[in-house]
Amino acid sequence: MAPKLKLLLWKILHEALPVGELLVVRQILPSAKCIRCECPESILHLFYNCPYAQKVWKLTPYAGDLDALQVPSFEMGWRRALNAAVLPPIGLSDCHLAPWIIASIWSTRNLLETITKAICDAKEWKETQPISTPRCKKPQTPRPPRTEVICRSDAAWKKELKAAGLAWTFSDVRNERFSSHSVTCALVISSLVAEGLAMRSAMEQAIDLQLRKVTFESDSLQLVSAIKGSSYFSEIHGILSDIHLLSSYFDEISFRFCHRENLVIEDGLAKQALRGFVPNPV
Question: Which parts of the sequence belong to the RNase H type-1 domain (predicted)?
């Protein structure tokens, strides 16, 4: 299964996916209503019980009908979907379609687009996998995972817009950067929340890159102290929960304070991302 799907499923199974009910608890949204109907948006509702999700599963080319409305939990629906056979001539008889359906429901809004995207993504992923040849197969040396990676994150926050630019980079022990990223984020209530979001995004990216031994650095002493349990800030309670959950993925992980002068690159990327932020029209 593709790493991005593993991460999405990990978030779902650990109730870390930002659905309506979770966003209301974190005081990010005033209402938990599903964007497709008026029901509260839980993980079970979004992926199975919502009328939109029911239509998606009904139109999915499975042998037998998967009645999404009768699914009592996400785990049960997930097992049923994994056990369902994909009909020909889709060309995925030996590949699970369920993860791609879940990802498409999460990322798309159009019914036919959801199913088409899932099938195309699944076939594209399948075609990139190495073909197993039992005879005359040359032994391959597995690529060792990167070790002792340092990830530095930073954020730029603008109070008037309640928006933030988030940035993070990955470096090896020789301090040579091999990856950098930046994004913008809306509805950010404080600079501390922005720093926490940057750290969480960096951890998600590290998982996507399959890095297993990482030291995460931030110039926010409050954030590092909160992660280590030395202090508590209610405004980042949900973010800290996500960080602790994500930590379980790594073989070795640590968090430490980094002086601002060592985050010049990350600070510049965060500020550049914030300058490109475009508020949604009211």
Answer: 153-273
CA distance 25 to 44: 17
Which of the listed CATH numbers 3.40.50.1580, 3.90.1640.10, 3.30.420.10, 3.30.420.40 matches domain 149-275? Answer: 3.30.420.10
End-to-end CA gap in the chain: 40
Q: At what angle do helices 237-247 and 191-208 cross, to 10 degrees?
A: 20
d(CA 226, CA 142): 38
Q: Which of 156, 222, 217 is nearest to 191 (CA)?
A: 156
pLDDT per position as a tens digit, 108-142: 655 555 656 666 667 666 666 665 555 444 455 44
Tens of pLDDT, residue by residue over 160-172, are: 989 999 999 999 8
Smallest CA-to-CA distance from 216 within 151, 279, 281 is with 151
Of the listed ranges 19-33, 194-208, 244-258, the least confidently predicted one is 19-33
Q: Which of 174, 189, 181, 252 is nearest to 216 (CA)?
A: 252
Q: Write the pLDDT tens digit of every residue in 143-161.
A: 444 458 999 999 999 999 8
Which runs of E-coded beta strand occur in the chain? 149-158, 163-171, 177-186, 213-218, 252-257
DSSP-derived secondary structure letter, 66: -
